[in-house]
Structure formats: C-alpha cells, structure tokens
Specification:
Elements: E1 3-6, H1 9-23, H2 32-50, H3 53-68, H4 77-88, E2 95-98
Antiparallel strand pairs: 1-2
Amino acid sequence: MTTTKQYDFRKLALGLIFDAIGMLSFVIPFVGSFTDIIWAPIAGWLMTRMYKGKAGQAAGLFTFVEELIPGMDIIPTFTIMWFYTYVFKGAKNEKTIEV
C-alpha cells in the first residue's frame, strides 16, 4: 500500500495567472510601471488570502514590495509560494490518497 500526495492545482493555476498579470507591465514600456502601483496591493492581498498564517502574510508583504520595485516583476512569487507550500514544505492540511 502506497500513499501519494494530492496537491492543490487550483492554487497553482491561479498563481500562474496572477504571476502573468504581474508581468504584463513589461508589455507596455514606461506606462506599465505605473500599473504596478495598482497591482501591488491587490497582489499582496491575494497572496494573503491564498496562503494563510505567517507564511502567507510574509509572502503577501514580499509580493507587495516586489511588485512595486521596477524590474522585479519577473519573479513569479505566487508560483514560488505554491512550490514552497506543497512541494518543499508540505502543506499541513495536505490530503493523502491510498493507492
């Protein structure tokens, strides 16, 4: 009997979408940096809603700052947080399926 981890791929899909939205500022030169002022607080808030606890709060703050700094949009913070939560750390409430 073996057990396999079940990851929350919905959060991964949302994270990829949110990272893509954050990187859209590279598409419009000069104007895109101003859109980060609007996206930064939204991205930080979304991160804290997706991942609870101190790790989610820290990631939300990091996401907020990362989105405000010009040129740092290339960092996929939502995707990195998903990997940290589900792959490297292992989610506390992860579900296991017996096969």
